[in-house]
Write a structure and sequence with these properties.
heterodimer; A: mainly alpha; 78% helix; B: 15 helices; 71% helix
């Protein structure tokens, strides 16, 4: 295992370098000269020159790349261009709210989707199964934007069951009051694709030999499904849940934006709207590192869940 | 018998598939007609009054009532409004029937803030979505299939190179990558959206096609082609490609849906199409302020159109997959 870990970590290096070069090319080469953007509406040449020197963009490209690498290693990306807040500070303070929404969201949606998928897998081929599948397809075809707008308008604005948006200062208040509706929206949105996927995982297992054996020795269908099929299907489901985490971290930005949750996703949107390159660069690189780490963890978990898996 | 004909026969037996194909074709035809200027050409014309309600609603929400209500509640805090006289004047001009006479009070499915017909906007939006979806999916599939074929067939350093590129692109969450590129380009328009989505969305197709090529390149028919002196390019594209084309086709169709949804989000956030183009996303962007006033028809129309197209496309994809891969059925 130690050898495997070392090899995997070694393989991180070229990928990470690739991400760094890609981000660098995007922002330092395609993005053009940031000095003109920062200098304001009426730039004068001295000011532009001063900004260029401060940012290091007057240096040759390889020096700039070196600066970027140093920034990644030290975690010091300097200050945001628009708010002057330290980028590292932005990260630390925005992670909490993001996780407050994400962790319950993932837990609830995974459990609900597994239960529903098991149900339709049990009634496979029946009218219930087909109806749920069509409902999932239709549900999936509606943009997440519409879910957010509709839930926010009806449940929060019209009925007043939830606050329309906002964020408090204590974890309990945030979790129960402000995060409730965002979590509900997130769960509803992720249910449809998850049910479809998990149903296919269950159906794949149902046709296996061990299921036939279990049935042959007289186990009831419920026992077969909940004990035997579930344990085996849990492996691809775990991988799927793990693989969703990095995307959600940055991808929950629509939810965070609409409900004014001061998380990482909202920060990304704000940064993109303000062309705040240091923040976008930092988020992209660190989320990429997190993704690679999660992929590795997911492979290790896979091995732990399924002893047949050989790590190469 | 020709396998494509067989697949088509299987497809034609699938009722859901045929219905979804007809819906897809109808929308493609609508988009083509709209692009050719046959329908919805004058979508930007302000044909109705601002927020003209749909015709099937009873005249409960008359704008007249709303406007007078606004004027009356203006100074209920006991503060004299210094602009009262001007506002009254503006109000008088706005409510003069002669000015409004040319514009209709109701439209079939209502109007937006500027009095533009919602139905025409939805048709124009369908054109945008379908053009972006098809073109971006075509680009992504082309890249993914080409890279996958090269990597899988060649192996060695070519494989390593493309695998590296793949791991780099998949390390960054898709929407984050798309947003980062949108931030850098700072340039709106249909072509930009197509390029962003197409150039970043090839990874899934690449992985599948690469696996197919790895499997096929050692099959006997390919070895036989090698023995009779077929060139590498010929083996890759004339021999193997037809045998993996069902994967390509299903992926193409799958990605159309993916990109239609991505375009809506991009345009909603203001990084997608420009202001002179309608997209379902830019229609949804107008919805928050409309909903507060109780004007639900624009979001309803855009959502309904999008749900119809995307559902039809998804069901069509499922049917195509079933028809092309009889093992799954």
């Amino acid at each position: 295992l130690a050898g495997y870990l070392a090899r995997r970590l070694w393989q991180f290096i070229p990928t990470l370098l690739g991400v760094v070069v890609l981000v660098f090319l995007l922002f330092n080469w395609v993005g053009g000269d940031p000095a003109y953007m920062l200098a304001g509406k009426i730039p004068n040449p001295e000011r532009i020159e001063a900004i260029r020197q401060a940012l290091g963009v007057d240096q040759p490209y390889w020096v700039q790349l070196w600066i970027f690498l140093k920034q990644i290693a030290t975690g010091d990306f300097g200050a945001s261009w628009s708010t002057n807040e330290r980028v590292s500070q932005i990260f630390l303070t925005r992670l909490g709210p993001s996780l407050t929404v994400l962790i319950p969201l993932l837990l609830i949606s995974t459990l609900l989707a597994m239960a529903a998928a098991m149900l339709v897998a049990y009634y496979r081929g029946s009218l219930t199964d087909r109806a749920v599948m069509v409902a999932c397809t239709v549900g999936q075809s509606i943009s997440i934007l519409v879910y957010i707008l509709a839930f926010q308008y009806v449940l929060a604005y019209q009925l007043g069951w939830f606050p329309v948006q906002g964020w408090g200062s204590t974890l309990g208040e945030n979790l129960l009051r402000f995060a409730a509706l965002p979590i509900l929206v997130g769960v509803v949105v992720s249910l449809a694709p998850d049910i479809r996927l998990y149903r296919s995982f269950f159906l794949e297992e149902i046709n296996q030999d061990y299921v036939r054996t279990a049935r042959a020795k007289g186990l009831g269908e419920g026992r077969v499904l909940w004990l035997h099929v579930l344990r085996n299907a849990a492996i691809p489901i775990t991988t799927n849940v793990m693989s969703q985490i990095p995307g959600l971290l940055a991808g929950a930005f629509l939810i965070e934006r609409f409900f004014s949750i001061p998380g990482i996703g909202r920060e990304v949107i704000l940064a993109v709207e303000r062309s705040d390159f240091p923040v976008i660069k930092a988020v992209t690189v660190y989320v990429a590192i997190a993704t690679m780490a999660i992929n590795l963890a997911s492979d290790l978990l896979y091995k732990a869940l399924d002893p047949r898996v050989q790590l190469k | 018998m020709n396998p494509w004909l067989l697949a088509w026969r299987r497809f034609a037996r699938d009722r859901m598939g045929v219905v979804s194909l007809s819906v897809v074709l109808a929308f493609v035809a609508l988009a083509a007609a709209s692009a050719a200027g046959l329908v919805a050409r004058n979508w930007s014309e302000e044909v109705g009054v601002s927020y003209a309600p749909p015709r099937f609603l009873k005249q409960e929400i008359t704008l007249e009532a709303k406007r007078t209500a606004v004027v009356q509640t203006q100074d209920d805090h006991g503060i004299t409004d210094p602009l009262a006289a001007e506002l009254a004047e503006i109000h008088a001009i706005l409510t003069t029937p002669s000015k409004e006479g040319a514009k209709s009070q109701t439209l079939v499915f209502g109007a937006d803030k500027w009095g533009r017909d919602v139905i025409r906007k939805v048709i124009k939006g369908s054109e945008t979505s379908i053009v972006v979806g098809l073109a971006a999916a075509a680009l992504a599939t082309l890249l993914g299939a080409l890279f996958g074929a090269l990597a899988g067939y060649r192996g060695g350093w070519v494989d390593d190179l493309f695998n590296w590129l793949y791991s780099v692109f998949t390390s960054i969450p898709y929407l984050l990558l798309v947003l980062a590129i949108a931030a850098v380009l700072d340039q709106k328009g249909i072509v930009t959206v197509i390029l962003i989505l197409g150039l970043t969305g090839w990874t899934g197709i690449f992985r599948l096609i690469r696996a197919e090529y790895l499997k096929h390149k050692v099959r006997e028919y390919v070895l036989a082609a090698d023995a009779v002196g077929a060139s590498d390019a010929r083996r890759m594209f004339a021999h193997i490609l037809p045998n993996v084309s069902h994967v390509v086709l299903v992926q193409l169709s799958l990605h159309v849906v993916l990109f239609i949804k991505a375009e809506v989000i991009l345009s909603f956030l203001g990084f997608g199409v420009g202001v002179d183009t309608v997209s379902w996303g830019s229609m949804l962007a107008e919805a928050p302020s409309e909903l507060i006033l109780g004007m639900w028809w624009q979001i309803a129309a855009a959502t309904a159109a999008m749900a119809l197209v995307v559902t039809a496309f998804s069901l069509f994809t499922d049917a195509v997959r079933d028809a092309l891969d009889p093992r799954l059925a």
